[in-house]
Amino acid sequence: MSSTFAIILTGILVAAACASLGCFLILRRMAMLADAISHAILPGLVAGYFIAQGPSLLAGFFGAALAGLITVGLVELLKNTQRVGGESAIGIVFPAMFALGTFLVSKYYADVHLDADAVLYGNIEFVGFDHWYLGETDLGPQSLWIMGGLCLINFIFITVFYKELKLATFDAGLAATLGFSPILIHYGLMAVVSITTVGAFTAVGAILVVALMIVPAATAYLLTDRLPWMIGLAIGAGAIAAVLGFGLAFMLNGSVAGAIATITGVEFGLALLFSPKQGLVARARRLARQRIQFAADTLLVHLLQHEGSPEAANESTISHLQSELQWNNKFAQRVLDLAQRRSLVRCQGQQLELTTSGRERSQQVLQLGRA
Amino acid sequence: MNTDAKPLAIHDLTVAYQDKPVLWDIDLSVPSGVLAAIVGPNGAGKSTLIKATLGLMPIAAGTIQMFGQTYAKARQMVGYVPQRSSVDWDFPTNALDVVLMGTYGQLGWIKRPSKADREWALHCLEQVAMADFAQRQISQLSGGQQQRVFLARALAQRAQLYLMDEPFVGVDAVTERAIISLLQQLRSDGKTVICVHHDLDSAPEYFDWVALLNVRMIAAGPMKTTWTPENISQTYGGRTQNLIRGAA
Prior knowledge:
The complex is a heterodimer.
Chain A: H1 3-27, H2 31-51, H3 57-80, H4 86-108, H5 116-121, E1 131-134, E2 137-141, H6 142-160, H7 162-170, H8 172-177, H9 182-223, H10 227-252, H11 256-274, H12 280-306, H13 312-315, H14 318-323, H15 329-341, E3 345-348, E4 351-354, H16 356-370
Chain B: E1 8-17, E2 20-30, E3 35-39, H1 46-53, E4 61-65, H2 71-74, E5 78-81, H3 95-100, H4 104-107, H5 115-127, H6 143-156, E6 161-165, H7 173-188, E7 192-197, H8 203-206, E8 209-214, E9 216-222, H9 223-226, H10 229-236, H11 239-247
Parallel strand pairs in B: 3-7, 3-8, 5-6, 6-7
Antiparallel strand pairs in B: 1-2, 1-4, 8-9
Helix pairs in contact in B: 5-6
């Protein structure tokens, strides 16, 4: 297997494993907790290293998962004291855990591979070199196995407990009354987030794990209003970011993990602007359309008010729209176009008059305004 | 199931925040087949009573039984309608899916809803006249429509006892009438319905049983005999006095 392919595939697997869980973090408004866990697992890793007397995958996973759950537990405890608000509780716990980890690394393992750079930025560039062997047989890059395994675990977790995750996320109260412990589900999810973070951070580092966990999920949330689609789109957005990020890093000869995370940010920006329903552009267009529609209704009501009165001839001219209603030429023209297209208003030279349906519409508008 | 047992029997219930009693020595026994209101001023502990009943809040003292059993055992027979504001309506799902959540309790862990469950959920939506909105994203429903989806979800639980927290809050007049006729339908089917209700004017018209609550249970019984000016004024007027006596 070529090393390039191994890097890209690892990136895709990391993105898929992270983004799928990220959807539930976004919906539970816990994006910051992913950040906290990604930093707070460091002392757990060191503890694993210490117990196993060296780098051990299993000890590392257990240590990190435990540290992740301790972080979540401490945050909950701190919140329950009601002396510290939710986000602040996270902000207090995770630097403390991270600092403890950093201190332990510098004190006991200053000379070993567990260095701060690897923790923060990962080393996805080297995944192709670190192979697993069974006896003499080359099983392929280690990180592919780890991330493949984590993807599988997350896939099974989300599939098996989909109903419970959805219910506890949407309505924890109902979940509790129906006998599905929301606390159990919360800690289960956090355990899976913790081990995913450990697996992923050897590839992309602690900071970028957060990018892949949160940003693609947030992007997907802007694009759909169905949960299964959201999970699928989040995985897709993460995978695309992995591929494009690799290409970008290759072209510019920069950090692969950094490029991948940057692309997730770009994707989010594009979704925020151009999402068909929730995008800023779509919203601006919707508002503009509403403004024209409301102006057309205003015109109808104005024409109705003066219909049949002596000043009607003066009030109901096109130039009057500009001088008295204070509409500029272009806007007045667009309003008039809309009203004529819907045959609500007839234009006789400079003179405007209501059609039958225009009169009905204006009366409806007045009724609605009163209700 | 003990058919003679009361749908809800609360005995000596006290709920407190630290040393501040929210509910003080409550006795309440609701007979089968009534449409009951829990009425009282703000801060009387109406929602707390519902939440404590459903185990969503720790209780300091007392016992709560439903159909002669603890809630953990009677779960399947109890439907719950929380306050509409208690959930995030931007959640990416549609009305039918929310109603389907009502069937999760009978399904238990891991098992997925079947086609029959889906049809049942749709039927429940029909009963609240919301079948046309089954596929609608829930954030695009009006307040009244959201409330009806919540009611349909409770119907989907196939319960014998329904506990509802302010089902009429923030709904339009049409929805209010639709809800009350649905509740009356439930009663004539032999179910028991208990609602937290805050509107004194409509209470005697809508409900046939009432519990007047203000931290302590002031009075409880059939609307005709319990809805007296003395009881009401004691519930609302004597509030501070009760608190002082309660705390003493």
